[in-house]
Design brief:
alpha/beta; binds cytidine-5'-monophosphate; 8 strands; 221 residues; 5-stranded parallel sheet; globular; 3-stranded antiparallel sheet; Rossmann fold
Length: 221
Amino acid sequence: MIVTIDGPAAAGKSTVARRLARRLGFRYLDTGAMYRAATWKALRCGADLEAPETLAEVVRNADIQLKADGRVLCDGQDVTQVIRSPEVTGNIYRVADDAAARQALIRQQRKLAATDNLVAEGRDQGSEVFPDAEVKFYLHASLKVRAGRRLDELRNADKDVSLAEVQRQIVLRDRRDRSRPVGSLRRTGDMIFIDSTDLSVEQVVQVMLDHVEDRLAGGPS
Ligand code: C5P
């Protein structure tokens, strides 16, 4: 069974996807981490980021592994922390905007679905990668709440930034994610819309669990 969670930056997709996967005994697929690892590799090997074929080749040859304990490995190296650096975050769009590089990552994502039950999270999981997923969610939250959550995360990691700056970055990312020519963030009619603005993580997970369990029991999702 495939459960997808699409939605914008900082809507809480990773947190709820991880918890939902644990509760269901499914594998959690953090596709953002794959885009991050691919970007890290392209930067590290000095690939010409303006040359689509070179970039796709680098991504095709990247051995990205998402471990059950949350670690991310790229070509055997633990990149869990470094893929969250501003340098990687600031360059992801180069991989994310590139059709051939996306195809290489999508192939890896679909391969996992052939063997495992998945909770797959990202911008394009229900709309593009797994259009036939059994249950699809679209996780929304207001800009103000998303910026506040991201600010808390950054401050917990001892990063000194202002709310205004975090908000500015999220608006920029939203614009990029919605307007990219391939794999753009979009809500399709078959996605269950969840507004998490006034909900706790546990409440969101519970709503999702109810839908998945309905579906497992043979009812509508
Ligand atoms: O989810 P996360 O913030 O780690 O994703 C990082 C970036 O990777 C997103 O802003 C987006 O540009 C890209 N991405 C994507 N498609 C996905 C997941 C992430 O384009 N399925």
